[in-house]
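hey m, so remember when u said the tokens were messed up on ur end? i reran from scratch. heres the input so u can diff it against urs
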Amino acid sequence: MIDVKLSIVNSKPEIFRIIRVDENINLQLFHEVIQAAFEWSNMHSHFYNADKSILKNEEEILLGNALNKWESLIYVYDLADFWTISISLLATNSGELSKKPVCLQGQGKSPPEDSGGIINYCEVLELLAKHNKGDRQYPLIADWLGENYNPNEFNCEQVNLNFKNLVL
């Protein structure tokens, strides 16, 4: 088992998840783990990038080997929004092997799918903050995200429930 940090590149404050996962999971299945960690619904294409090269044959590459071999491992989801997740190895654990990943920690609400990538998402959050302070110029933002949308909210238990429902 390894502890891995998944971080949305250029998110401020940082949106991340720290998970414990089987190092022998292949990258094709790890894609499903990332989707569950960020509560996305796997509606778009993805790819992995290591040292500026797109990885092919994801089903043949094990996560632990990839993190040991390449200095940087990047996951890109939704080729229009281009959500970029840096994947980094935090620790190796010699504990009990589990088929299901476990969320250990995290920060920040997952951006909704089709929200335009990190730059547009940050702009949406600025407009929502103005809306919540009384500037009702952009009511559709609040309608879309919800009046009580909290970008700092994170629920580790929900992520673990998502992991339990994975078929790996």
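this time it looks ok to me. Residues 82 and 117 are 6 Å apart (CA to CA). if urs says something different then somethings off w ur setup not the seq
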